[in-house]
Here is the input.
Amino acid sequence: MVSSEQRRRQLAREKFERQQKRRAQARKRKQHTTVIAAALAVVVAAGATAFATGAFSGDDDKKTKAKDPAAASESAAPTPPEEKKSPEPAMKIDKSAKYSMTLDTGPGRIAIAMDAAKTPRTVNSFQALADKGYFDNTKCHRLTTDGIFVLQCGDPKGDGTGGPGYNIPDENLDALGKPAADSTVTFPAGTVAMANTSQPNSGGSQFFLVYKDTKLPPKYTPFGKMDAAGLKTVQRIAEAGVAGGGADGPPKTEVTVKKATVAKG
Here is the structure.
């Protein structure tokens, strides 16, 4: 017999998955429209130039919310061939060393121990982005407080649609154990994992901070763990709730990452 709590969580996850697909589709539509617009602009420009010289010289519907950190649409996957992508940063970290990421936010400092051995490409990407100030002065744009308990950050646009222009592969997906009968695993409170578009290998820069044990499909790279003080900070943010009420949206307590640093050791 399925309990009401299990059913509620199941519905939250299903909504979560539908949202991912809608956001990915919306991103593709935007990219397609952009390509068409660019093509038309080229045709118009070409016509004008030819006449004179005889020669020819990405947004999701952010109003639609779901209880899923993977609904981040920063990097729709697969990316249409026509979209020009940035390369993934060259590997520079020492996979055998320890790394940590520190987020200096208004509500408090959040320190994260990163697992470079099991998630080297994820950690390498975060170091490359942090070193160039990519995360500085960005907002943690999404808080979910029902069924899924996460604070989502890492989007330079602050609306869930931004990303670095490249994707990184999924890593360490078996770290949280064998999936249960409902195809989920438990992401323990304190876990830090990659958001994606629900498609394999579609992570970019967005990530989520788990402040209470959360059941999700095992397809989000768990790459770090918050320290006790950082977890308490995120829990205080969650206790204040979502702006405007509800259970999914911008946190009522504004969370701006003033500075993000990734350090070895």
About this structure: The domain at 1-78+93-265 is CATH 2.40.100.10 (Cyclophilin). The CA atoms of residues 31 and 58 lie 6 Å apart. The chain has one domain: 1-78+93-265.
